[in-house]
Every structure is written in structure tokens, then in C-alpha cells.
Amino acid sequence: MDAHSVIVRPIVSEHSYELQEMRKYTFEVAKGASKLQIADAIEELFSVKVVRVNTLSVKPKKKRVRQVAGYTRSWKKAIVTLAEGDSIEIFGNQA
Q1: DSSP string, 31-79
Q2: What topology does CATH give the domain 3-82?
Q3: What confidence tens digit (pLDDT) does each residue in 51-63 have?
Q4: Taking Cα atoms as reference points, which of 37, 51, 34, 26 lies closest to residue 4?
Q5: Domains of the chain: which residue ranges?
């Protein structure tokens, strides 16, 4: 897998912003990606040093639209911890 197919998108939420203060960044990743592949992809794409990668599978939730019941999709989340002094600018310099 190349780096762009491993990292799907960054996760933008209030919780992920709080984690950024501790040099932890959250990404949606490919379901079949391993922790080593995720670390290599982040290092390649953002030119940073990855210290730790934590992954979890987000399970589907039941949803209903009128009479039609179904599920949301399942996906994989990675929380990446960077080395001291490294950071990732997800939105560039917007202030």
C-alpha cells in the first residue's frame, strides 16, 4: 500500500483538537493497514517522527430512515503520537 491509500482522511472533532495539544493526531485509515504501515505513511506524508500508533475499529451503528433500517459503515481509526517538537498542520495557517 502506498501512503495515500493508507491514510484516508484526518478526523476533525472537538476531542481530536484536545488531543493535538498532547501531539496526538487522529486519522481514518484503511481497514487492512497495520500500525507499521500507518506510521510509515504519516512519516512519509508529513515529514515527522512517529513515536506511537494506537488503532481501533469503529463498529457500525443502527440507523433508520422512515421504514428502512440499516447500519452506518464500519471503519478504522488511528491515533498517532508524534515526537517532541513535531506537529502536523491539518488546516494550514488559518488564524
Answers
A1: TT--HHHHHHHHHHHH---EEEEEEEEEPP-EEEETTEEEEPPPEEEEE
A2: Alpha-Beta Plaits (3.30.70)
A3: 999 999 999 999 9
A4: 37
A5: 3-82
